[in-house]
């Protein structure tokens, strides 16, 4: 395969690779960090489609929505800048928070960042429950965003570091699983609370965020930090004891890599260091993977599923119910990734998922274009049509859920060497948040302007990302995280960026002058 590649045969170290009970429980607990992110993704779309919520905070949108008659343009129904600002403020906060988290995760460990994330998110959720004005809502959302920035920066690293290399994929994808469970629970909660008479159900929906936050806080308190983080902070004996415990063997000398600690100490500015030529492949993927993940268009369905289904002529409850169905498909398909990501590898799933999403995007574009046309007036929607659209969306979501969803967090967290791991992961989170923000902010305007052509926009990006993965991403399955540097040296394109052993020696002795880019 064009971009494939396996670890060098010179890797003769014997790393313990079995999944112990201790490590499994540790991963399950840490992965709960995904719940807060998922809950928020799922709740925003549902709450913003609840009439009492709109009436109280976004009366203009509510008025416009109720004035629209069946014959009007359905594409432009929900277009409002303040409403999208509410959805998006969180992502800007998360972006900035992930950069701060980079320092904390490196200097004080992954656990402290996880705890900070959980606590800030919880405070944000409390503020949202009691919100009396749009500004209280937005400040609450900013706090939720800070919590998510910290959690997404530290949890994927935590998982990739504690997992034995043969199971790293499955353990890391638990994070994505908890994101999808968060989304699903949020969709169910919205569905239930929307029925409450009196119009205050949205407060319960927003307040429900306290529960995943508390689970994450309590979970983080019970966890010990990763051996890699302890090594990075010079706590060598503690790191070794911890590694022995989670691997469940008597000897971890091969895996216990203190050299990385020395490398890490040499780095003065982790951010400037990312510009070094030798880190070009890792930084390329730290940016491009989250960028592409968002340009699959998945979040159009995650944030706006109820709105989108409503736009397509489904009634209020039918919209939330359809969002529930897509949420369930998202979680179930993630289980496929957990069981097979370490068997078939990352490249296989990226490529398969890309093709599956592409085909379904074509179906969705044709279906929506056929019924809604340019003027957005579908007339009567037959049930076969609704079933076809929901089915195509479900198959598309399954494609995302076993490819770009989990791999968008797994691959970046496993390819960075320890000395740049924390800062590079922040880049991944920041890029993810910028483009999540971008999609959340402009989707409604784009739907209004591009009509069904919106789906063609995402479709083109899926073609590009699938080709980039095919050509440039080497396989990372089954390679110990400490040995990951080897994959670039053997890749047809990246090998020219990565120093061979002699150059590395020269660099250590400080004689290599043309290292900066
Ligand atoms: C993405 C989110 C997305 C979610 C859907 C995550 O991996 O980062 O943006 O909403 O998957 O399951």
Automatic annotation (TrEMBL):
Record membrane topology: Multi-pass membrane protein
Residues spanning the membrane: 19-39, 83-105, 112-136, 142-159, 171-194, 200-224, 283-307, 319-341, 348-372, 384-405, 426-446, 452-473
InterPro entries: MFS_dom, MFS_STP/MST-like_plant, MFS_sugar_transport-like, MFS_trans_sf, STP/PLT_plant, Sugar/inositol_transpt, Sugar_transporter_CS
CDD domains: MFS_STP
Major facilitator superfamily (MFS) profile domain segment(s): 26-477
GO MF entries: monosaccharide transmembrane transporter activity; symporter activity
GO cellular component term, pick one: membrane
Keyword annotations of the record: Membrane, Sugar transport, Symport, Transmembrane, Transmembrane helix, Transport
Cited Pfam families: Sugar_tr
Keyword Membrane: yes
Subcellular location: Membrane
PROSITE patterns registered for this protein in UniProt: MFS (PS50850), SUGAR_TRANSPORT_2 (PS00217)
The keyword Transferase appears for this protein: no
Tree of life domain: Eukaryota
Major localization class: membrane
PANTHER family (alphabetical): MAJOR FACILITATOR, SUGAR TRANSPORTER, MAJOR FACILITATOR SUPERFAMILY, SOLUTE CARRIER FAMILY 2, FACILITATED GLUCOSE TRANSPORTER
Family: Belongs to the major facilitator superfamily. Phosphate:H(+) symporter (TC 2.A.1.9) family. Belongs to the major facilitator superfamily. Sugar transporter (TC 2.A.1.1) family.
Protein name, UniProt field: Major facilitator, sugar transporter, major facilitator superfamily
Protein species of origin: Helianthus annuus (Common sunflower)
């Amino acid at each position: 395969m064009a971009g494939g590649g396996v670890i060098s045969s010179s890797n003769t170290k014997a790393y313990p690779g079995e999944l112990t009970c201790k490590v499994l429980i540790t991963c399950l607990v840490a992965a709960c960090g995904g719940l807060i992110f998922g809950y928020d993704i799922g709740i925003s779309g549902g709450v913003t489609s609840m009439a009492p919520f709109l009436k109280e905070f976004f009366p203009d949108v509510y008025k416009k929505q109720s004035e629209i008659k069946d014959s009007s343009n359905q594409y432009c129904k929900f277009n409002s800048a303040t409403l999208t600002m509410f959805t998006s403020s969180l992502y800007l906060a998360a972006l900035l928070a992930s950069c701060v988290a980079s320092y904390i995760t490196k200097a004080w460990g992954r656990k402290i960042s996880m705890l900070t994330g959980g606590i800030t998110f919880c405070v944000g959720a409390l503020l949202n429950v009691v919100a009396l004005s749009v500004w209280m809502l937005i400040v609450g959302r900013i706090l939720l965003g800070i919590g998510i920035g910290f959690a997404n920066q530290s949890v994927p690293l935590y998982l990739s570091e504690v997992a034995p290399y043969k199971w790293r994929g499955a353990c890391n994808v638990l994070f994505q699983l908890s994101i999808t469970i968060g989304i699903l629970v949020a969709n169910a909660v919205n569905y239930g609370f929307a029925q409450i008479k009196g119009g205050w159900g949205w407060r319960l929906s927003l307040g429900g965020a306290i529960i995943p936050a508390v689970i994450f806080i309590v979970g983080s308190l019970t966890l010990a930090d990763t051996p890699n983080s302890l090594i990075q902070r010079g706590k060598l004996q503690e790191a070794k004891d911890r590694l022995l415990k989670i691997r469940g063997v008597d000897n971890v000398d091969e895996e216990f890599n203190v050299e990385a600690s020395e490398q890490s100490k040499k780095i003065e500015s982790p951010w400037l260091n990312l510009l070094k030529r030798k880190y070009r492949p890792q930084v390329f993927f730290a940016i491009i993977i989250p960028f592409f993940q968002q340009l699959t268009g998945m979040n159009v369905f995650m944030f706006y599923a109820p709105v989108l289904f409503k736009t397509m002529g489904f009634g209020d409850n039918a919209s939330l119910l359809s969002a529930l169905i897509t949420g369930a498909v998202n979680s179930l398909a993630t289980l496929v990734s957990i069981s097979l990501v370490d068997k078939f590898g990352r490249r296989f799933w990226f490529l398969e998922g890309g093709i599956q999403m592409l085909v379904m995007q074509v179906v969705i574009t044709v279906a929506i274009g056929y019924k809604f046309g340019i003027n957005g007036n579908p007339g009567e929607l037959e049930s076969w049509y609704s079933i076809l659209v929901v089915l195509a969306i479900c198959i598309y979501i399954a494609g995302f859920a076993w490819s770009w969803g989990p791999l968008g967090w797994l691959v970046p967290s496993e390819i960075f060497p320890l000395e740049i791991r924390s800062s590079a992961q922040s880049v991944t989170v920041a890029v993810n948040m910028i483009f999540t923000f971008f999609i959340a902010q402009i989707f409604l305007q784009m739907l209004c302007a591009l009509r069904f052509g919106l789906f063609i926009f995402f479709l083109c990006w899926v073609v590009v990302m699938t080709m980039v993965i095919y050509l440039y991403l080497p396989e990372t399955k089954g390679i110990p995280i400490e040995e990951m540097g080897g994959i670039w040296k053997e890749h047809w394109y990246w090998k020219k960026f990565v120093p061979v052993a002699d150059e590395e020696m020269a660099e250590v002795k400080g004689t290599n002058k043309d290292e900066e880019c």
